[in-house]
Design goal:
Layout lengths: L1 E3 L20 H8 L8 H9 L5 E5 L5 H6 L6 E6 L1 H6 L4 H7 L8 E5 L10 E7 L5 E7 L2 H6 L2 E4 L6 H12 L5 E5 L5 H9 L4 E3 L16 E5 L5 E3 L9
Parallel strand pairs: 1-11, 2-3, 2-7, 3-4, 7-8
Antiparallel strand pairs: 4-5, 5-6, 8-10, 9-10
Length: 243
Amino acid sequence: MKIDYSKIYDEDLRKGDAHMAILQDYRREEFLDQTSTASHYSLLAYLSNQISNGIIIEVGSFLGLGTIALANNPSNRVITYDLLPILQAGVGGYFVEEIIDKNFFPLNIEVMVKEDGNILGEEEATVTMLDARKEVNTFQRPNDPKTIIKSDLIFLDAAHDGKMEQEIYDFLCRNDYKGILLLDDISLNKEMALFWRGIDKKKYDITEIGHGKDDDFNRSGTGLVDFSGNVEIVRPTSPPALT
């Protein structure tokens, strides 16, 4: 996969505009904002469009903004994991009660709710998705960790305690994962910084096209771990022009 810094901000985030219409205005504007690297949604959409007919895993759904960006390419299957209490906390519960129940979600997203928080276990999860008629379909099915191993991209943005991240990283190493692991908030706290420092696979700090704005919150960092051995980073000689 080639990651060309000069192309990141070419992505059309307005593919997801309709899905954001019911969110509070500031969240909608945040999603569509391509004028600052404080917003990493362009990066997520770009990565989605470097994959065709693949599987993308997101760990940490929260508001669903990153989920929608990852679903930018409709040929991919996007599976997003989170805990029910966290999902319901997102902007007053809009993620579950408004976006999904009012059919604002793209058809290629599956929301997996695991109340125990263990995405690597085979216990049943509650799945919510839209069917071909754009009707909400909620059902129970066993979680399949093999799907994670088969995925092309994993976006990890959940506990930020270093422990969960390490557990997932070790799981991928043990199972000879061949995709790409994208990590949000690698500089958020001491635990995340230590976890990032300890990764021995080929890795890239791509904060400048992720969470890289010069303020305390948004410079929390973005890292990419290349399990595939096929990532090519194309950095410009000067920072990309943002218009």
